[in-house]
User: What shape does this take?
Amino acid sequence: MVQLTSDLFRFLEELKANNDRIWFKSNQARFEQKVREPLLAFIAAFEEPLANISPSMLAIAKKSGGSMFRIHRDTRFSKDKSPYKTWAAVQFRHEAGRDAHAPCYYLHLAPGDVFVGAGIWHPDRAALDAIRVLIDEKPAKWVKARDAVLLAGWDLEGDALKRIPRGYAAEHPLADDLRRKDFIAVRRLSEQDVVQSGFLQRYTDLCREPIKLMKFLTEALGLPF
Assistant: This one.
């Protein structure tokens, strides 16, 4: 049985207080046992349920290049030179996506900050334009997709323009949605939710709730869901 435990959160909590290479090296075995191995097992176990939700979304249980985010931070362009992320996450991307900007399902795990995500984060200009065009062309379909996640207890988060993008009337009935730069639905959970024995099924059920949103976004991008 796949089981994430409170040990994962405790390790990340300690890492936040000791974010240096010496500490991590001396605790790497704990990282493997308490964080990486359970998450890889979770990813592997989610492969079949995910295929039943969408055969186009991928669950790849690999230490590198798969669904699990690496623990090392990219510090090249950051003033913060802390070498490690103090959170763990998995991302189930569309098979057509090469990076984090493709439609995906997401799970974020940090002490005091746990959430499920679905949608597309920071799409490139072409993808963003395509989504806006479909919202304008099929407003009723967009409203159904948007409201379905809101009614299920999710929030729509992300950045937005201050003004409606060029080409759309300021009084457009969906002006607020057309101003969005991200189309990501977020459902917040607790650490206790994650460590329950049935969390894999809970996560599977949660990923079914934004299906209309995911179908809308993949349609906009000309992709299968």
User: Anything to note?
Assistant: The first strand starts at residue 88 and ends at 93.
